[in-house]
Design a protein that fits this description.
Number of domains: 1
Oligomer: single chain
Distance between the termini: 74 Å
Structural class: mainly alpha
Order of helices and strands: HEEHHEEEHHHHHHHH
Number of strands: 5
Largest sheet: 3 strands, mixed
Number of helices: 11
Strand order of the largest sheet: 3-5-4
Length: 282
Amino acid sequence: MRKTTGSGIVALAGLLVVLAGCSEVGITGRKQLNFVPSSLVTSMSLQQYDQLIAQSKRSTNAQATAMVQKVGEKIVQAVEEYSKTHSDKDPFAGYKWDFNLIEDPNVNAFAMPGGKVVVYTGILPVTQNETGLATVLGHEIAHVFAGHGGERLSQSLLTQMGEVGLSAALQKQPEQTKSLFIGAYGLGTQVGFLLPFSRVHESEADHLGLVFMAMAGYDPHEAVAFWERMAASSKGQSKPPAFLSTHPADQKRIDDLNKLLPEAMESYHPAGAPTQNPPAIK
């Protein structure tokens, strides 16, 4: 009888983790490795979110803040309605959504598990209007829907901690595990540290976000216009805006979005869309 070596046991354990953690992203159908409990990811997310909000200044622009909340809520509602009819799983179960507009010149926005969404005022000149904002929020909410943070964290635990189990990692290396989480969400100095995976996630968020904004009644064609403005705003800069730091090349993204428009248009219902020329946000 052939004996199993120690390394063989580790390899087998790793394989079992991979098999147990395999799941499929809704709509795109991409297979992903995500074995970190969603409750843990949400808990760590809320800790980082609370710290960020405590150190930030909320915008006093009531109109712009209301716009962020309105668009975010419409997209979440549309995704939840879609999930009820196409899946037996609620992607946002237990979430308490909170949409914040932060006074900050950075061109950025993000969403975290648990339903915490932050938009920086620096991105508003690029979004210009409600539909442009829907492009951004659809993209960010797509990251949460697809569990990208948990997937990145799962990959990080496997590649950087080897055979150390998740529970052991949390008990013996809490600070390292925390830093991996921060890196997974791009909130620290390690923004996009898993760059190859991050680009996959960004492209998938573009795909899902395009469909989500259409579901919420926003014309997905406007997403192309938004990314064209975003590309133009970064020209001549030595460092791209944070919102572009780990994203696909501008022209590739625009080309991919154009290819995805027919699919997104199947979910577009103009009756629920905002006015043809919504007022710009300044």
